[in-house]
Amino acid sequence: MCVVIDWCPDLPLTVVEEILLNLPGKQVICVCRLVCNEWKSVVDSTAFWRERCRREGLKPLITYKVPKDWQTYYFLCKKRRNLLKNPNANENFTGWKILENGGDRWLVDNVFTPHPDDTVTKCFVTSYGRCIKSQLINLEKEGYSPVFMDQIQPNIVISDWYAPRWDCGSIYELRVELLNNKKKTVQFFQPEPVTFPQWNDNQWNQMTHTFKDYGPGVRFILFKHGGQDTQFWAGHYGIRVTNSSVEILPSDEE
């Protein structure tokens, strides 16, 4: 058990705050906050975490929105990352589970039309039979505890990029599920399949969705996508997918 000691060196609180602002955030919470009541009051203040965010360049994407809890906002921003492994096909199919492998099967290929993110150079390509692949994200293993997910319920933002071939019709599909500890669906997002005609502009399109206020119990995220071509041509003329992402964001961010 940790005990808060009601004593601290005779330092002005402004000096204490400056010291704490230069220490790692986790150390400030787990160690420094327990030194004495005065240090605890500094660490628990909104001003401390707002200043820490300012110094580290962490600010809301929507400039007119002010975070409700600057401490939570700070740690979510520091942990922010894409929870999907190998989203851009740079490691072949590592991290993905192939659920359906129709036609001439999934293939990794170079992008044929430049992606809006010029660092993306590869994509996953479907065939004339239905091709679906998935990833299961364990939130606790990624550092988001059950208590945190239940109490804070941060936004879960998903994004996926897809494109057809210009000379072949195709279908794109996506389904993302929030699962409980028994891997039963708590909430899901499944838009209508997107169908492209033959002879199209073969441009990249983005599908996005934000899960909010989904309630307690979310422990896993299941991401599934894919599709096929509609001409039933041998080879790999179906939908292309790449640069998929699942991110945990503060509720004030979208």
Short overview:
This protein has 254 residues and is α+β, with helices and mostly antiparallel strands. It has six helices and eleven strands.
Question: What can you tell me about this protein's structure?
Answer:
The protein has 2 domains: 13-79, Monooxygenase; 97-249, Sandwich (Jelly Rolls). The chain has 6 helices and 11 strands. It has helices at residues 13-21, 25-30, 37-43, 46-55, 70-79, 146-152, and strands at 97-101, 107-110, 122-125, 131-138, 155-163, 170-179, 185-189, 194-196, 205-211, 220-229, 240-249. Strands 1, 4, 6, 7, 8 and 10 form a 6-stranded antiparallel sheet that branches. It is elongated.
Search tags:
6 helices, Monooxygenase, 5-stranded antiparallel beta sheet, Jelly Rolls, 6-stranded antiparallel beta sheet, 254 residues, alpha+beta
Itemize the secondary structure elements and their pairings.
Layout: H1 13-21, H2 25-30, H3 37-43, H4 46-55, H5 70-79, E1 97-101, E2 107-110, E3 122-125, E4 131-138, H6 146-152, E5 155-163, E6 170-179, E7 185-189, E8 194-196, E9 205-211, E10 220-229, E11 240-249
Helix pairs in contact: 1-3
Tell me the strand percentage band.
25-35%
CA radius of gyration: 23 Å
Number of H/I helices: 6
**Fraction of residues in H or I helices:** 10-25%
**Low-confidence segments, ≥5 residues, pLDDT <50?**
1-6
CATH superfamily of the largest domain: Galactose-binding domain-like
Describe the largest sheet.
6 strands, antiparallel
CATH architecture assignment of the largest domain: Sandwich
